[in-house]
């Protein structure tokens, strides 16, 4: 969607550049001749037109405060009307840029009245400073040009604005969807897992003495199994969306839309203005007979109907049925009219070419544009100046973009609104995968340890009551640790410490009857690397306890060399399926290490099964890390960690 916003911005820039070139070319056209133009007047005119184009671009970016917008409009008024005092008849009409800015910036209750006043002022100044003897047709032509340019620039401004706003809103909508998913997960973990672990804490505090001791121990074991089942259901990413909801729907998207009817009205206004401009051209330059006027009016009426049929956005969103026949007919009629009467039909044929640009694919549409441009240049009078040619080509470019923009305006709004639903679903899936990882990696050890401790206590309660009581008290510690892990999984910022994890896994291995050997030969690690390696230790030892058969010894070593930390976890048992690399846990670890520019290897050797994690220590090698080695979300739906959809 960012590419669409960039494309819309490029359309605005191209439109303003085309208008700047066209207006500058008009100053140097044969309209005034060499006697009407001096070096100073030409410089003033080009500078003022450039300033108007620049202020329209700045206003369209919507980065100015309301007060700054008013100052920008005041500056536009000075640029649009001040040159009349300096260069007189050479100037104008350029008030269309001010009209577009006024309609785009000011509140609706005053914008239209202000736009009318701007046009009236421009026409009035043209009458005062124009050439002596210029009739009313020249003033009508300037009025039509102001309206036409204003509608053109306003349409492209709206296209750019709606694309930008929808792009921003889709990110906000996706963030809301993620927040809803996160709230649902938080509620589910607190109500289910949290309740189970809190029950373990309460029961462990009652101790192992008394007649109900074995019953309490059995209840804790049942609670641990229930918590493990709940954790597995949370890890299952195939479940339905949060709260039993259906997929995010585009209709629920809080969109800023442009109605197809509004774009249709803009197209109608442009079509009517172009027809009026053709009439002014004929009245001013040709002065046809009555029969000629009838023919011109019939041609314009038919072409206007055809232009609205296939060159305007459809309210239904569907293309007209027979545009493939009507559009070529439209172009042929106008091409014949241009061949017979000269460039006076240029405004209407350029709109038709814009419709061809929108409807036909390349290279057919480009071929039509080339033919139209060539015909218009060929029918220019023999005395046409370079400025006339520049004005014609630039005007054609602006009209093409205008026709294209009005057709695309509602379509882009509709597409972005629909795409936002897909983005929201993608963000929800990423959040779900993030929770899946953290529940698996963080809670797995605590829940597994509680179950193993219960089995160990059952064996020790008669054989070694003192140790049984000690292990029973540790159940509460494990449950409290699990509650903290739930909070970490909910917040998305697990704060693990390697030293604490090493003590915890040693206790778990001891409860499982596995001898633990730990050797840490590394100095203090960066906080994010320490957290990442703590996660690796937790998952590796959990896999040893859960999935590795006949293991009697587990060795954990940590070393640093050449700016890289190496964590090695070895056990002498036979690896199960998960240990061999097909389980969710090792996939999670590989993703976490990859986010830190590290890697993970898991293989069997003569000592048993070996899991080794490598991660660079220097920030230049690994980039900025988030807790547990998670990266930023590529769609910038903050604060969702970046989880790739391929990770399961």
Automatic annotation (TrEMBL):
Residue span(s) of domain Histidine kinase/HSP90-like ATPase: 532-618
GO molecular function: any one? protein dimerization activity
Query: Which residue ranges traverse the bilayer?
Result: 39-61, 68-84, 113-133, 139-160, 262-284, 290-310, 331-358, 364-383
Please give the name of this protein: Signal transduction histidine kinase
Renumbered to this chain, region (Disordered) spans 624-648
Name the species this protein comes from.
Answer: Catellatospora methionotrophica
Which segments constitute the Signal transduction histidine kinase subgroup 3 dimerisation and phosphoacceptor domain? Answer: 431-491
Task: Supply the Pfam families for this chain.
Answer: HATPase_c, HisKA_3
Quote a single Gene Ontology cellular component term: membrane
Q: Which InterPro entries match?
A: HATPase_C_sf, HATPase_dom, Sensor_HK_TwoCompSys, Sig_transdc_His_kin_sub3_dim/P
The record's section on Gene3D superfamilies has:
1.20.5.1930, Histidine kinase-like ATPase, C-terminal domain
The alphabetized UniProt keywords are: Kinase, Membrane, Transferase, Transmembrane, Transmembrane helix, Two-component regulatory system
- Coiled-coil parts of chain: none
